[in-house]
Write a structure and sequence with these properties.
The protein is of the alpha+beta class. It has two domains: about 130 residues; about 110 residues, Transferase(Phosphotransferase) domain 1 (Transferase(Phosphotransferase), domain 1), CATH 1.10.510.10. The chain is about 30% helix and about 25% strand. Strand 4 and strand 5 form a beta hairpin. The longest helix has 19 residues.
Length: about 240
């Protein structure tokens, strides 16, 4: 592990010197970069508007400010109860991504994480290395119909994460991503964890299925059917049997 922690005026920054050799609070703001653009996407793939591409090619980064979702997020947008540095959302996700990337899992490489305390509460941010050429699963299947081999590869990729005990708290049609070679990546491991096998594996599959059906409701022309889901499950269970 190559992590370094630096204290700030009201919190701390965790970062990898091999990726970013100098870090400051300014790097967690759009103004701290020469180039910054808000991530947008079709079919609601742009998230909550709290994610930006920063930096310049060839190495760009993704800057994400942690925002609450659901009904609570309408009242308390971006603050969390502070219960220790190591339990902040950003530090926990950084360390999980660091472990997964070190084991050659298809996840973004973490660059830096920050938390800022405000009394008993804190806000958080995360910087990861941008994966070139990836699009969300929702966008990928909106472009054209995908064959059986592709859907089976999605299932097999999910099994690889599950075999490693990787719990993704929000596996959906946006956080599952596809690169230019058709390989599957997973983004956004907020509240993720490493777990022993259990019901959570089926629950994450169910969550992805619900998400795909919701996206289909947004655009009925989307190339997704019940047969595609069966193909995904075939890929998942074939991979589990051959493991």
């Amino acid at each position: 592990m190559t992590e370094t922690v630096e204290r700030t005026r009201n919190g701390a920054i965790l970062y990898d010197k091999a990726i970013i050799n100098q870090i400051s609070d300014q790097r967690f703001t759009p103004e701290g970069w020469l180039h910054a653009e808000v991530l947008t996407g079709s079919l609601r793939s742009g998230g909550r508007g709290n994610t930006m591409f920063v930096g310049n090619v060839p190495r760009q980064f993704v800057l994400r400010h942690y925002m609450r979702g659901g009904l609570l997020g309408k009242v308390i947008k971006d603050t969390y109860v502070f219960s220790g540095e190591d339990l902040t959302r950003s530090f926990m996700e950084w360390r999980l991504l660091d472990k997964l990337a070190a084991n050659n899992m298809n996840v973004p490489r973490p660059a830096a994480a920050r938390f800022c305390r405000r009394g008993t509460f804190y806000t958080a941010d995360l910087i990861t290395v941008r994966i070139p050429g990836v699009v969300s699963l929702s966008q990928y299947i909106a472009a054209e119909s995908r064959d059986e081999a592709f859907w089976q590869s999605v299932g097999a990729a999910i099994w690889k994460f599950h075999r490693a005990g990787v719990y993704h708290a929000d596996m959906n049609a946006y956080n599952v991503q596809v690169d230019q070679d058709g390989d599957i990546w997973m983004l956004d491991f907020d509240k993720g964890a490493l777990k022993a096998p259990g019901p959570w594996q089926q629950e994450t599959l169910n969550r992805l299925h619900r998400s795909l059906r919701k996206v289909l409701d947004l655009d009925p022309r989307l190339h997704f059917s019940g047969r595609n889901w069966e193909q995904l499950l075939e890929g998942y269970f074939n991979a589990s049997r051959s493991a």
